[in-house]
Design goal:
Length: 257
């Protein structure tokens, strides 16, 4: 069980959205270890009013409602006309709605219900730097947070994504689709992406890490978890006495069971 100290550590900058594709996952003990939850309504066939209400009462982080279109990797083929009837019954128990560009006309109505909009775009290719910037501007036109998931083709694309994320003028979630460059998922958080998506029991997109895997990556990659050996001063000139005790104390707080 992830030690609470790990989740509460303000240094942890790789924050996890657990993407849920079945109400059975709502009852997982791992739910509490996510920073936010995404309910993939397009992948759920039965009504979830009661299950979502119970989830709302048991989870204190943001809950996102997503209806991913079949054109962008999801299972929803109902078009924009039916979207409102599908999502409106659940608005009282969620905080944000993920809206693709094709559904942007619903943004103001969602905001009028005091819900935030994650304006999203998912592509199986890799846009250039300028196209990425234009896409960010388009998404910012209707979203409180922008989200872009693209498929890098080479390491240069990864550098482009990291640079675009780190210079993005808006609150951004940047992700990669596919498995070849999945390692970029946690790195994008180190360069400014607000969250990375993971799964609890079944992946909702190729290349996703499980929440357990991402917790470990978050622990190992987040600057606050680097051994306090240097503590900002070179070992040679610093007084290294007490390092072992300090690092053992530090590690005690972060023990995994
Ligand atoms: O947009 C995203 C990111 C995602 O596609 C992923 O690659 O992890 C998973 C989706 O559920 C989510 O809505």
């Amino acid at each position: 069980m992830l030690h609470e100290a790990l989740k509460s550590d303000s240094n942890r900058i790789i924050r996890i959205i657990a993407s849920l594709s079945s109400p059975l996952e709502f009852r997982s003990p791992l739910i509490k270890e996510a920073d936010a939850l995404e309910v993939r309504l397009d992948m759920i066939t039965e009504p979830i009013n009661d299950a979502l209400h119970q989830l709302r009462n048991s989870f204190d982080g943001p809950i996102i409602l997503t209806m991913r279109s079949s054109d962008e990797g999801g299972a929803y083929a109902g078009g924009t006309g039916r979207l409102w009837e599908r999502i409106s019954p659940y608005l009282s128990d969620i905080d944000m709605v993920d809206l693709e560009i094709r559904f942007q006309d619903h943004a103001e109505r969602i905001k009028s219900h005091n819900k935030s909009v994650i304006a999203s775009c998912h592509r199986n290719d890799m846009p250039g730097e300028q196209e990425l910037q234009n896409l960010m501007d388009t998404l910012h036109g209707f979203g409180d947070i922008i989200k872009i998931a693209v498929q890098p083709q080479n390491q240069q694309d990864i550098l482009t994504l990291l640079k675009s994320t780190s210079t993005c003028p808006y609150p951004v979630i940047m992700s990669v689709t596919g498995t070849v460059y999945r390692y970029a998922r946690p790195l994008l958080c180190l360069f400014g992406s607000l969250y990375t998506y993971c799964y609890i029991e079944s992946a909702t997109s190729p290349g996703q890490y499980s929440i357990r895997e991402m917790q470990l990556l978050s622990h190992l990659l987040t600057p606050g978890f680097v051994d306090p050996w240097f503590e900002g001063r070179p070992v040679r000139s610093g007084d290294v006495s007490g390092f072992l005790e300090r690092s053992q104390e530090y590690r005690k707080k972060l023990e995994y069971q």
